[in-house]
Design a protein that fits this description.
With 128 residues, the chain is mainly alpha-helical. 55% of the residues lie in helices and 0% in strands. The chain has 5 helices and no strands. The longest helix is centred in the first third of the chain and has 20 residues. It is elongated.
Amino acid sequence: MNVRSIFLIASAIALVPLGAVAGDEFTSLHPEAAYPDSTQQASSPDRYTEFTKRVQQKLHERGFDAGPVNGAFGAKTQAALAQFQLSLTLPASGQLDGATLAELGVGRDAPAADVSSESTKGDSNASQ
């Protein structure tokens, strides 16, 4: 065996682990996919659960893996939100600021509307 053959065999052996890494779920475009899905539901539904579900759904529609649409704002949802922000050159805070909500097409008024409709129901029941 000559030196060139030995070098080629050694190079091939050294590259095998790199091939295993390349097949990993993580990509530079969507690193949020590397986070495990949170199977837990929001501990107790509150006025933000439905709002968070809408945000998660919108992220999925735009190709960002926010995990299950369960209303829990976990690490995977936050990572998907940050990647969405980066894709639009917004500050990548992972938080639901006004610009991010506008780009997602989700309004802030929805949770407040749920609360006001509950209080309206209570008022109408009290008058009967």
